[in-house]
From TrEMBL:
It comes from Panicum virgatum (Blackwell switchgrass). GO terms for biological process: coenzyme A metabolic process; isoprenoid biosynthetic process; sterol biosynthetic process. It holds the Pfam family HMG-CoA_red. NCBIfam families: HMG_CoA_R_NADP. This is 3-hydroxy-3-methylglutaryl coenzyme A reductase. GO terms for cellular component: endoplasmic reticulum membrane; peroxisomal membrane. The chain crosses the membrane at residues 36-54, 75-97. It catalyses: (R)-mevalonate + 2 NADP(+) + CoA = (3S)-3-hydroxy-3-methylglutaryl-CoA + 2 NADPH + 2 H(+). The keyword Transmembrane helix applies. Its EC number is 1.1.1.34. Keywords: Endoplasmic reticulum, Glycoprotein, Isoprene biosynthesis, Membrane, NADP, Oxidoreductase, Transmembrane, Transmembrane helix. It is found in: Endoplasmic reticulum membrane. Catalyzes the synthesis of mevalonate. The specific precursor of all isoprenoid compounds present in plants.
Amino acid sequence: MDARRKLGQQGAAAVPPAAARLPRVQAGDALPLPIRHTNLIFSALFAVSLAYLMRRWREKIRSSTPLHAVGLAEMLAIFGLIASLIYLLSFFGIAFVQSIVSSSDEDEDFLGVGAGAPAPPAPCALLGSPAAAPEKMPEEDEEIVAAVVAGKIPSYVLETRLGDCRRAAGIRREAVRRITGREIEGLPLDGFDYSSVLGQCIELPVGYVQLPVGVAGPLLLDGQRYYVPMATTEGCLVASTNRGCKAIAESGGATSVVLRDGMTRAPVARLPTARRAAEVRAFLEDPDNFETLSMVFNRSSRFARLQGVQCAMAGRNLYMRFTSSTGDAMGMNMISKGVQNVLDFLQDDFPDMDVISISGNFCSDKKPAAVNWIEGRGKSVVCEAVIKEEVVKKVLKTDVQSLVELNTIKNLAGSAIAGALGGFNAHASNIVTAIFIATGQDPAQNVESSHCITMLEPINDGKDLHISVTMPSIEVGTVGGGTQLASQSACLDLLGVKGANRESPGSNARLLATVVAGGVLAGELSLLSALASGQLVKSHMKYNRSSKDMSKIVP
Ligand code: ADP
């Protein structure tokens, strides 16, 4: 590891070497006034002393006087020369050395870790390499680490026992480091509020992963402008979505409609016989029983409101797919509580019902499933726009006919050939996942949330383009889960959908779903255009230089 990198990794607490503490001076840098004056004085002193000594030595040589016979004036001149030389060397010499060192920095500067770039985050002082002089761990913590390593204290009790989440994470991390022999240097520990995730978002924390967030926009959607936060490490993605937003905005904007809003949970129960299972099914699906079931279901939350139950059977196993509104929460916890209420209630009338699992996969959560594609889950949204002919040419650098043809052959026929399930699009999951991560959604739900069919049609005598994305299962919330964490909540705030909507519970989450669909519309438009005009590889080479294998980023 090179010395400067090590320096960066020692963190704020480490003392930099003396040279690094001196002001860095480079050609062209404007110096502060007092420094400039001092430089002038010493330069003048140097020049005058040198000139005087040269003149004196020339006279001595001419008059054959020994050179070492010096008078007071000469001694003063020699002293002035040495003093000014030391000053000038120490000032410009360091700048010169620094300029040589930094000239080999070009690659790092490009990557944002060289001069002028923000210093990398300080890794855990406990885990610094020996060269980085790690902070000594307190004796007491040393003992706990040793006990965790020896298996005498389970790592998962540290937070409760110590009552200090940061300390618990540091100790756990040190134990992991000793057990595995891996430094995990690049994974930061400090700079995160571990108490904010305790009991809600994660267990056994040892650090946090950093992801860059970009914004695409403005996305002109339903008359409002949104700057869409996207967390990704795929170069081109935000730039491409941004271009799509521009095309949409220059064409007058997109509009959206939320067709359905209901989270689902489907427990599975086994009955003694298929006939008996059918009886339970009939009870659940009987409209006369809906009110009773709703009362039972709704009692555990102010926001969960039962919308319906849809059943399916496999032999004597009964799958009951409950759908419920969940306010501004994505709703999995909320709906699970309601479902449990109903299962308990059913047990009275059907004591022979054996509940196998609160989730029987007919829900269907985090797995590709036709039920979500057909019936919907979460928010079902359609978003559309008419892109003007001149915008297709000017912004998207292609033409309507090529785009429509490409969409038919790739997104519709191609996906059919592939046996796609909800994947009749170019890269909906790219945008969905980037927005999900930025706004604290459950990223695993990108599976069904990315279900999307993209439709393109020529309109106005083939001049303009009608584009739509239909997304039946966008699962988002603005309360609960990761949405309350500082960074994620800031991204929700950027969109104006942070937290619960008090006047109209559920409105924030629905609005977020429409923004996701709008972002996907922009992303589809831009990628299809890049493909149609053959720009894709070129732009990836520009924005994603380090990706050698382009096939990985062409969805
Ligand atoms: P999820 O079901 O998405 O995991 P949770 O049920 O854990 O979310 O979190 C939602 C919490 O937020 C519940 O306790 C609920 O009472 C509360 N809450 C407050 N305001 C709202 C709102 N407008 N919509 C939904 N939940 C809300």
